[in-house]
Amino acid sequence: MYLTPQHILLAGATGLTGEHLLDRLLNEPTVSRVLAPSRRPLAEHPHLENPVGDFTSLLAELGGRVDIAFCCLGSTIKQAGSQDAFRAVDMDMVVAFGRRAREMGARHLLVISAVNADPESSIFYSRVKGEMEEALKDQNWPQLTIARPSLLIGEREDQRLVEQLAAPIAKLIPGKYGGIEACQLARALWRLALEEQDGIRVVESDELRRLGK
């Protein structure tokens, strides 16, 4: 477990899980700095640095020491508008973030993927997530943690009807296909960040729920 003050790089701080994770990080006594680039401003905090603008452009301008990086970037094909636009966020942007975080000295990257991520999948969404995971593995991280939640449950600005209907049922599904609250996922990510364990770790939704209790 890390005992020295940590410098954190966070992508996706305005998203469902990212908001919960940011709140937790800013209230952790072991975290001295959170660098969170975003498209829209975040609430001010003494330990928060929040460059605002186009995310891809901001990456090159980021500076300072980074110990741990969290990537909570993610969209849906409907949100993105096309398969190409979805890939640009969930593959290209995530991989670029990982590369920049590594350049800044981060030793541990934690990334949110998805259940059934598989680069050989016939399902486009799962295939892109799997390709993203493989690209991050190729970056040779000392420590890479891949979180694969199932249905994410929580209050969204653009709450989808299907998610509203599925959420109560998803919570009851056992194993890795069971849904998980975004606040639980954020807690699990922080607990995983505190574990010093070299190599790659893939954490499925059931284990994430356990860690996030």
TrEMBL record:
Indicate what this protein is called per its UniProt record: Uncharacterized conserved protein YbjT, contains NAD(P)-binding and DUF2867 domains
Any Pfam family hit: NAD_binding_10
Q: Which organism is it from?
A: Pseudomonas abietaniphila
Q: Which residues form a coiled coil?
A: none
Q: Where is the NAD(P)-binding domain?
A: 12-157
